[in-house]
Amino acid sequence: MSSNKIRWPSWPLLVPALALLAGILLVPLADTLIRSVSTPGWTLSNYSNLFTDGVTLTVLWRTAVTAATVTAAALLIGYPYAYLMTRVSPRARGILLVIVLIPFWTSVMARNFAWIIILQDGGPVQSLFEFFGADDVVFYGTTVGVTIAMTQVMLPFMVLPLFSTLGAIDRRLLLAARGLGSSPTAAFWKVYWPLSRSGVMAGVILVFTLSLGFYVTPALLGSPQESLVAQLLAQRTTLLLDFAAAGALGILVLVVTLVLVAWANRMGGTMSAIGVVAAGRTEGRR
Amino acid sequence: MTTPSTTVKATGSSPGTPSGTEIRLDRVTKDFGLAAPAVDDISLTIRPGEFMTFLGPSGSGKTTTLNLIAGFETLTAGTIALNGTDVSDVPPHRRNLGMLFQNYALFPHLTVAQNVAYPLRERKVPKREIARKVAEVLELVQLTGRDDNHPSQLSGGQQQRVALARAIVFEPSALLLDEPLGALDRNLRSALQAEIRRIHREVGSTFVFVTHDQEEAMNLSDRIALFNNGRIEQIGTPQQLYAEPETLFTARFLGDSNVFELGQAALGRSIVWDGESWGVDPATVAAHPGVRAGSAIVVRPEDVEVAARRDEVPPGANAVRAVVRDVEYMGSYRTLLLAMGRRGLPGRTRVSPLRGDYAIGDEIVAWWRPGAQRIVAA
Ligand SMILES: Nc1ncnc2c1ncn2[C@@H]1O[C@H](COP(=O)(O)OP(=O)(O)OP(=O)(O)O)[C@@H](O)[C@H]1O
Ligand SMILES: [Mg+2]
């Protein structure tokens, strides 16, 4: 027997993954794309219709605003939370992590029905507001309610990248800044915040792109008059059976998302952040 | 919590004129709640423009004391005053002190020039002046032309020089350095030691330098404060600490020494050790009025001479018989490792090669003049 090892090329290891990707992503995507430009006949009318039908742009804008609000809320809550996680004992950190992950492990339906109970007319939240004299506050069936519920489930996507970035910041840099004449506030804004930017960027992109695709939450908690883009897509595919128009809309959302990710990557978000985005995409379609 | 708005003013510091801050520690204690306080009732005055080194073994409280001066730790007891102003409640950024750590602590998101400019920006120095000062100080640390590099593009020694530049660019009236050369290799260390000494001369600030390397301390300092268990064991010029140690700890920490521990004995005209009777020079008895249990005689190796026989020892000298255990060739001199007295106490002496050869196992007589020995407290 020869002692020479046979040098197998390593690319065949990718074959199963590539086959799967081709089968469930590339083929349907290509199909969607082709259909959107070939029905009826070769035309771009499905795309131009998006801008002229008077509905799509409104829904897209509403979706973007909702996603941006969710992102801002998640950042405002998640940043101090992740900071706290880097400062406490490993035990407490574990507990904080579990708390933020609980909505993750809860079934989509259970979570959303729980929110319905909490936010509905006459529910505990409304009663609380009434107690303080605000009688006309309505969350159920509004974008506000949708935003609250979405923020809850998006929080881990903000907290986890932030936690890993903040945890890696050398705290002696803050001491150095203090020693060089910075007040604690100045030290935060001039040293800590810039060093946390890649984590912020990753979290923001992750939460924003995932929020663009939410379906179940706005369908259950929102109002049909204020639907988001995923509902519009569902309506066009399942009710109107207009696959070409739905395909054009889907492709538009995809392009917008990819542009955002590319932009974030240039602005200092890391490749790993995009990896997480990609991994989270399917998860976020709820 | 209110932060006092006093900012410690530099006393008209411009390069070239000695203008450092006086740092006064009065009965300073820091207790972390461990078995013993990290800093235990230290009083110390560092003079304006002085190069003061905190030397001592690991865990002896050097860094903690420095952090107390900087304001990064709060006092358990005592007061700290800069130029006579009590700063015990002044936050670090208002003390106007420069700070240099062991591990650079350069801001990784800023370039070399931006790092150095940082303290000037915080002080709202006009842009043009910032540019001028940054260029000036980068030249001082010999890093001209590296302005736009990021710290990660520099070697360890270069990074530390940037940190040094950043620490002195705002002309702090005092600079606190915590083992700034600890992570560097030997050559770089001595090069940067020379640089630090030069900068100290040129800037004229007070320098407080922490190290556990006695050679470094000897090289750099005007005075050394020797730390042990949160207290200052002895304070003085390098020469004083080496030649006139007051305690056994000091004698052992700085340089090599022959240590003869004494039992219970009164300090009279002579001392008996292992059957040998030795004379005493009253001037060599340190602060302690009488030899107590646990006191010891310390003789530096270079003060110990070697004779072949007892009758070659000059009259009035103190002598002990010894066996040569080993010979170390050190180039210009040799070190004999000895076993002294009946119990074979380890000892060492330096001899010139001109004084003949010694072989392992030779029986000799080691001797020294009473004036060369120190009697210290244990
Ligand atoms: N933040 C802290 N919390 C609790 N104990 C501390 C803290 N900082 C220092 N200590 C303790 O105080 C003592 C003195 O520490 P310090 O860092 O001042 O020593 P050092 O002389 O600088 O030592 P080294 O040469 O190793 O740097 C040590 O016993 C240390 O464990
Ligand atoms: Mg230390």
Give an overview of the whole structure.
The complex is a heterodimer of chains A (286) and B (378). Chain A has 13 helices and no strands. Chain A has 286 residues and is mainly α. Chain A has one domain: MetI-like (MetI-like fold). Chain A is globular, with a radius of gyration of 23 Å. By secondary structure, chain B is α+β, with helices and mostly antiparallel strands. Chain B folds into 2 domains: 235 residues, Rossmann fold (3-Layer(aba) Sandwich), CATH 3.40.50.300; 131 residues, Beta Barrel (OB fold (Dihydrolipoamide Acetyltransferase, E2P)), CATH 2.40.50.100. Chain B has 8 helices and 20 strands. Chain B is elongated. The complex binds adenosine-5'-triphosphate and magnesium ion. Magnesium ion binds next to helix 1 of chain B.
Itemize the secondary structure elements and their pairings.
The complex is a heterodimer of chains A (286) and B (378).
Chain A: H1 15-38, H2 45-52, H3 56-87, H4 90-105, H5 108-119, H6 124-131, H7 143-167, H8 172-179, H9 184-212, H10 216-221, H11 229-239, H12 243-266, H13 271-284
Helix pairs in contact in A: 1-12, 2-12, 3-4, 3-7, 3-9, 4-7, 7-9, 8-9, 9-12, 9-13, 11-12
Chain B: E1 23-30, E2 39-46, E3 51-55, H1 62-70, E4 77-82, E5 85-86, E6 97-100, H2 112-122, H3 127-140, H4 156-168, E7 174-178, H5 186-203, E8 206-211, H6 214-220, E9 223-228, E10 231-236, H7 238-243, H8 248-253, E11 258-261, E12 270-273, E13 276-279, E14 296-299, E15 305-307, E16 318-329, E17 334-340, E18 345-351, E19 363-368, E20 374-376
Parallel strand pairs in B: 3-8, 3-9, 6-7, 7-8
Antiparallel strand pairs in B: 1-2, 1-4, 4-5, 9-10, 11-14, 12-13, 14-20, 15-19, 16-17, 16-19, 17-18
The complex binds adenosine-5'-triphosphate and magnesium ion (MG).
Helical content of chain B, roughly?
10-25%
Kindly report the spatial arrangement of strands forming the biggest sheet of chain B: 6-7-8-3-9-10
CATH architecture of the largest domain in chain B: 3-Layer(aba) Sandwich
Let me know the average pLDDT of chain B: 85
**Beta strand count of chain A:** 0
Please give the radius of gyration of chain A in angstroms. 23 Å
CATH class of the largest domain in chain B: Alpha Beta
Question: Radius of gyration of chain B, Cα only, in angstroms?
Answer: 25 Å
* CATH homologous superfamily identity of chain A: MetI-like
DSSP summary: helix tally of chain A: 13
Q: Separation of termini of chain A? A: 58 Å
Gross morphology of chain B is elongated
Q: What is the C-level CATH assignment of chain A?
A: Mainly Alpha
Instruction: Please report which band the strand proportion of chain A falls in: under 5%, 5-15%, 15-25%, 25-35%, 35-45% or over 45%.
Output: under 5%
Q: What's the domain count of chain B?
A: 2
* Secondary structure tally, helices of chain B: 8
Helix content range of chain A: over 70%
